[in-house]
Write a structure and sequence with these properties.
Blueprint: H1 3-14, H2 25-42, H3 46-55, H4 60-64, H5 71-85, H6 90-101, H7 114-125, H8 129-143, H9 147-156, H10 168-192
């Protein structure tokens, strides 16, 4: 793995994030760590995965500001230009670009490579479990949502994510995180009802 390129890419990706938040650079770092863990277990190309993970959300701040419609598509274009200038091999470059384009579970395209599937899994895993719970309430604070609206978000999206994993490693991790999320929801509902 080209550690110099990975470090330069980390710095390049970080430059897109002016502030932290639900989709700040700390999210990117967690997705990177998840990708490295899952990638080792699944036998993926760790260099492709590292680059895709670091670059997957570079256009997210632009989407938040209304400058682009789809951060995955825009991010893939930014990654392609960046890696082409860096002289990255074409076949691997295509895989990085596809992985970024396909990382959103709510939109196409469907991930075709192992690395694309792992990036999609890692991104979803960061929305489940203790970190996922923290992110839901951070998002609610950022957008003025109350606890009831946050709980609806768990029902509508978060609790469905465990069944959308592509890899065996991510499925195992998702089971544990999902269970923790369900326990939290049961507890908060009891507290809201005044029973705990």
């Amino acid at each position: 793995m080209d550690s110099v390129l990975i470090q330069k890419t980390r710095e390049f990706a970080k430059s897109f994030f002016e502030r932290e938040g639900t989709h700040g650079f700390d999210h990117v770092e967690r997705v990177f760590n998840l990708c490295m863990h899952i990638g080792k277990e699944e036998g993926a190309d760790l260099e492709v995965l590292a680059l895709a993970a670091l670059l997957h959300d570079v256009a997210r701040p632009m989407e938040s500001r209304g400058e682009v419609q789809d951060h995955a598509k825009a991010g893939a274009e930014i990654a392609e230009e960046y890696l082409r200038k860096a002289g990255y091999p074409e076949e691997k470059l295509k895989n990085v670009v596809h992985s970024i384009e396909a990382h959103r579970f709510s939109r196409g395209p469907e991930p075709r490579t192992l690395e694309a599937k792992i990036l999609s899994d890692a991104d979803k895993l960061d929305a489940i479990g203790a970190v996922g719970i923290a992110r839901v309430f951070m998002y609610s604070g950022e957008h003025g949502r109350d606890i009831a609206a946050s709980l609806r978000h768990f029902e509508e999206k978060i609790l469905k994510l465990k069944d959308l994993m592509y890899t065996a490693t991510a499925r195992r991790m998702a089971e544990d995180r999902h269970r923790f999320t369900e326990e939290f929801i049961q507890r908060i509902l009891l507290e809201i009802a005044g029973e705990k």
